[in-house]
Amino acid sequence: MSSLARRRGRPAPLRTTPAVRVAAVLSFLYGGAVTALGVGLTVALATGQGLGADTHEYLVFRGVTTTIVFSLMAGGIFVADAFLVLRGARGTGVVVVAGIVVLAGLIGEVIEAVTGGSAASLAISAGIIVAAALPGVLLLLPRGLRSTPPVTADPTPGVTPPPQP
Predict the structure, then answer these.
(1) Which residue of 16, 80, 103, 160 has the smallest Cβ count within 10 Å?
(2) pTM, whole model, 2 decimals?
(3) H helices of the chain, where?
(4) Under a CB-based contact definition with an 8 Å cutoff, are residues 100 and 136 in contact?
(5) Closest of 104, 115, 88, 120 to residue 17, by C-alpha
(6) Contact at 8 Å (CB) between 93 and 77?
(7) Which candidate, 87, 74, 80, 90, places its Cα nearest to that of 138?
(8) 83-134 tens-digit pLDDT
(9) Rounded to an integer, what distance in angstroms lies between the CA atom of residue 160 and that of residue 153?
(10) CA distances from 57 to 51, 61, 62, 119 (A)
């Protein structure tokens, strides 16, 4: 860790494991898809076509605009954290946003299942929830600091090695 990073109180960068690389790619892809959803909804709301709902009603307009704002924010966090994770960041933004998506999605899945949703709709929603959760779960796996040497097994267990000069 550089002296400048130590002075500013920044944590040392973490190792970039294969799981972290996969999480970064999945985070980037999911962030791109969520951002595309937000942009598509914005265009549909601005043009008044493609939503299939009367956006002049207050609650419908409020629901669409809330979805747009959350989609754009979540997409930005997923994409930005994908690059930061590859540079050794923890990825807290991805974990928090993925947790929110999973929590809200599971509540919606239960409500949809109880009210008689179709199996295809439930399967699609479950796929969206898993796609959001996977990068967050992969980033929760343990990984050490970049400056930490790799741990190797002792060739002779039970024998104390001689002191190093």
Answers:
(1) 160
(2) 0.75
(3) 3-7, 18-47, 58-86, 92-114, 119-139
(4) no
(5) 88
(6) yes
(7) 90
(8) 999 988 888 999 999 999 999 999 999 999 999 989 999 999 999 999 999 9
(9) 13
(10) 13, 6, 9, 30
